[in-house]
Amino acid sequence: MRGIARLARELGVSTATVSRALNGNPNVNEATRQKVLEAAQRLGYAANQAARSLAQGVTHSVGFMIELDQESTTSTDYFFMGVVEGMQAVLAAHGLDLLVLPCAKSQDNFTFLQRFVSRGAVDGLILAETRRIDRRIDLLKSSDIPFVTLGRSDSGSGYSWIDLDFEGVMATAVERLVRLGHRRIAVTVPSNDANYGAIFAQAYRDNLARHGLDFDEALVFPTRRREDDGDSIVDGILDRPDPATAIILFYEVTAIGIYRRLAERGLKPGRDLSIIGFRREESVRFLMPQVTCFQMSLQDLGTAAARALLAQMPMTVRAFPSGIVQSRVPLSLVPGESDGPVCLREG
Amino acid sequence: MRGIARLARELGVSTATVSRALNGNPNVNEATRQKVLEAAQRLGYAANQAARSLAQGVTHSVGFMIELDQESTTSTDYFFMGVVEGMQAVLAAHGLDLLVLPCAKSQDNFTFLQRFVSRGAVDGLILAETRRIDRRIDLLKSSDIPFVTLGRSDSGSGYSWIDLDFEGVMATAVERLVRLGHRRIAVTVPSNDANYGAIFAQAYRDNLARHGLDFDEALVFPTRRREDDGDSIVDGILDRPDPATAIILFYEVTAIGIYRRLAERGLKPGRDLSIIGFRREESVRFLMPQVTCFQMSLQDLGTAAARALLAQMPMTVRAFPSGIVQSRVPLSLVPGESDGPVCLREG
DNA sequence: ACACCGATTGTAAGCGCTTACAATCGAGGG
DNA sequence: CCCTCGATTGTAAGCGCTTACAATCGGTGT
After folding, report:
1. For B210-245, how does the pLDDT look when each residue is reduced to its tens digit (9 = 90+)?
2. By CA distance, what is B97's nearest residue in A?
């Protein structure tokens, strides 16, 4: 005999009483509860997870699905750990375990997710790297499992998401540059299929318009998250009749290549070309002059996502309202020396 | 009625037959199996995880416990993603799910682990950041759950571990520097309580001895994984009667601070001070001159750990021998320009 | 024609826990 | 002193799946 039955026999009570005592059920004599807890402690007993889930119909755990991208492993990860930290803290406070579920880029992320969902392995899900069109969202919507996505998609609106405030970032960046006298502002956008690229690009257009600036397709540079697009960008910006005087980077690392190319051409970042990076990255911290960029708390992003999830989960106590949450976490500007007043030196 | 029973009724067979068909049991008529599979597919059926685990006594999942260090979140993560990728691939090929279990630095990692173990939430475990003395290892040894640690500990030897080949790295580094004429070689070691620090330091002493060099406590610098210990290191090395001419860094980022200080003193890395870094890092890729360092495949580390775990799990098919595995994954030297022949300029 | 056998399927007993419902007991009310 | 009621505990029916064991059936050997 094992498990709860053993404990029960040991104490001369029924398994029901043990179960109640362990689960904080109020219908147990306090003295009895103490005896049970003591014995459980002494025998190192912990309820079997599977049996519990089966009987209760819930797992007390939520999954955070991430995708492992062989190519950019060294980068995305760095992003997630902070986020996971925030999530974990909030979920743990509500008695939920966070399971990070890594999906290899090579396998179909839809099938991967489906397995966990249809098997009832988790009570809730958080998705990362949302696509513009993402079947996973439809899947989750049609199943009845609570979920939150990190990033918006175009898959309708009846669900919760948390995203970065790309619009706010872009508004601040453009306004800052305009104040400094810039009228021709270039931009880099991610070249992958994640939705944030489209959002970032749209925010760029919107904010140019807001300041009465013309949009020029030639000033938009798709980049990957690596430092070596500097040459084409710098040359593309400057070697034209109406060169741009500033650029906003989606990936801050791009600054490295740009700095390099500027140096080769005898130009100085901040004077001959103003540069504003988006999300602050570890590997760029040491670049001089420091890149003006935007910073955020990854932990906050995580806690926001966790809370948005909890808001949909059936539970008795909750420190915040329930329902659908759609919000953008703000980033703050970290001024550097990579931007400055437009340089009046004429080509 | 739901689950397997529904499927069974739908098909006019017993639940036992459905279960057998779904689980690849050979005692099922092939035609029947096809019908079952087709129906399951059609109805989007997948066996309930909890019920399955309860009945079988196994979960088909393994946990990878990592610790979230608020301070170094931005760094360690980057390490894990590659590792997770390797693990996931191997485990998935054996029908196991990998669950990454994040433990907040603030909570007791022993209790955290214990919960998952005693609740039977996973069939196997992989531990990261092993301490010299690590109660978790004793816990796992006394429970009967298969496990592997990333990193050695002093907790006996009857268990599997995978570690980096610190000894090999140090041997190569010292030998390289000795060949270049260096006789006074400094070292930085991590200042935390993980076991690898002690191992690295010991390997340093051993290899100095091997080449007949004296060990000097003053040339050992504890550092954290950040760039700003450069001043004290450079000054500590050079402002002494018998300055060191080379240094081996545990954390490659330390090179950034060192370069900076060297520059301030009008000195050049590779000429006035030879520098060899340990594990190659993203954020140092752009430092000039490039740091000579050691590189490894994080994926390989992950696959090695996963295989070592599988070697202990009860299973019928396995592509490699079972038993305890203790191995070190090698790193390869990436020559840069940060080291060179000892500079004969006399103080 | 009969016992026997392998292939296939069904029956039913759990796996360890939760929980609706019944049972018990002592106290307070009439 | 009997009845009702609240507090506490026990009983037992599942939760959805696996699997040992029994049952069925068509074919074989004699």
Report:
1. 999 999 999 999 998 877 788 999 999 999 999 999
2. A101
Same domain, A285 and A305: no
Yes or no: say if B247 and B217 are a contact pair by the CB < 8 Å rule.
no
pLDDT of residue A54: 97
- Please state the separation of Cα A287 from the chain's center in Å: 25
φ, ψ for residue A160 (rounded to 5)? -90, 140
Q: Least CB-CB distance to B77: which of A68, A80, A118?
A: A80
pLDDT per position as a tens digit, B297-327: 999 999 999 999 999 998 756 667 778 999 9
Eight-state DSSP code of residue A132: S
Q: Are B294 and B332 in contact (CB under 8 A)?
A: yes
Chain B residues in contact with A54 by the CB 8 A cut-off are: 48, 50-51, 54
CA B292 to chain CA centroid, Å, is 22
Is the distance from CB of A77 to CB of B78 less than 8 angstroms? Answer: yes
What percent of chain B clears pLDDT 70, i.e. is strictly above it?
95
* Residues B304, B314 contacting (CB under 8 angstroms): no
**How far is the C-alpha of B341 from the C-alpha of B226, rounded, in Å?**
27
The angle formed by the CA atoms of residues B24, B25 and B31, to the nearest 5 degrees, is 75
* Between residues A196 and A99, the one the model is more confident about: A99
Q: In the predicted model, is pLDDT for residue B162 greater than 70?
A: yes
Residue A317 lies in a domain: yes
Structure tokens of B342? 């000892």
- Write out the H or E segment, with its range, that includes residue B9: helix B3-11
What percentage of residues in chain A have a pLDDT greater than 90?
74
Beta carbons of A46 and B77 less than 8 Å apart: no
- CATH, residue B82: 3.40.50.2300
The verdict on A152 and A183 lying in the same domain is no
Q: Are residues A277 and A191 in the same domain?
A: yes
| Element housing A76 (H / E) | helix A73-93
In the stretch 121-150 of chain A, residues with CB closer than 8 A to chain B read 121
Short-list A26, A286, A302, A341, CA closest to B254: A286
Q: Are residues B128 and B221 in the same domain?
A: no
pLDDT in tens, B249-261: 999 889 988 998 9
Å from the A9 CA to the C29 C1': 39
Q: What is the 3-state secondary structure (H, E, C) of A291-305?
A: CEEEECCHHHHHHHH
Considering the domain boundaries, does residue A55 fall inside one? no
Query: Is there a single domain that holds both residue A147 and residue A176?
Result: no
- Name the DSSP letter for residue A27: S
Among A199, A204, A255, A245, which Cα is nearest to A225's? A255
Give the 3-state secondary structure percentages of chain B, helix then strand then coil, rounded to 5. Answer: 40, 20, 40
Burial of A195 (0-12, 13-18, 19+ CB in 10 A): buried
- Provide the strand spans (E) within B121-159: 124-127, 147-150
DSSP secondary structure letter of residue A194: B
B209 with B231, same domain?
yes
DSSP state of B194: B
The residue segments making up the domain with residue B135 are 61-164+299-329
Query: How far is the C-alpha of B47 from the C-alpha of A117, rounded, in Å?
Result: 11
Residue A141, judged by CB atoms within 10 A of its CB (0-12, 13-18, 19+), counts as: middle
Q: How far is the CA of A24 from the C1' of D7 (A)?
A: 16
Is pLDDT at B341 greater than 70 in this prediction?
yes
Domains contained in chain B, number: 3
